[in-house]
Amino acid sequence: MTYVVTENCIRCKYTDCVEVCPVDCFHEGPNFLVIDPVECIDCSLCVPECPADAIYADDQLPPDQAHFLEINAELAQVWPVISETRLPLGEADLWVDQGEKLQYLER
């Protein structure tokens, strides 16, 4: 099992979840975070820390978010590791809980 960052993180990029990760499995892109499924140890510490409620266990992904398992695996291979909390994106509070954000994912 692994944990997966889903659509609600796009254009928000809160990093509260990053600092609690004991294995540094988060990777940072321009406007999204992903979890490396190979590095993730399934500890679930990140889940309650995510203010956007964007992190799910892979076996609990909502059906409309299932494609994010592959997106996380793909982008974790190219984006750098992030291990410290940073400020969220400037308009994060406006974008959190907005649907249909996949089109805004910057690779």
Q: Can you give me a brief rundown of this structure?
A:
This protein has 107 residues and is an alpha+beta fold. It has helices at residues 16-19, 68-76, 92-95; strands at residues 3-5, 26-28, 33-35, 55-57. Helices cover 16% and strands 11% of the residues.
Description:
The protein has 107 residues and is an alpha+beta fold. 16% of the residues lie in helices and 11% in strands. Strands 1-4 form a two-stranded antiparallel ribbon. The protein has a two-stranded antiparallel sheet with strand order 2-3. The longest helix is centred in the last third of the chain and has 9 residues, at 68-76. 33% of the residues are buried.
Keywords:
107 residues, alpha+beta, two-stranded antiparallel ribbon, two-stranded antiparallel sheet, 11% strand, globular
Fold topology:
Layout: E1 3-5, H1 16-19, E2 26-28, E3 33-35, E4 55-57, H2 68-76, H3 92-95
Antiparallel strand pairs: 1-4, 2-3
Q: Using only CA atoms, what is the Rg? A: 12 Å
Count of DSSP H/I helices: 3
| Average pLDDT, all residues | 97
What is the N-to-C order of secondary-structure elements (H for helix, E for strand)?
EHEEEHH
What profile does the largest beta sheet have? 2 strands, antiparallel
What would you call the shape? globular
Broad structural category: alpha+beta
**N-to-C terminal Cα separation, in Å?**
25 Å
DSSP, total strands: 4
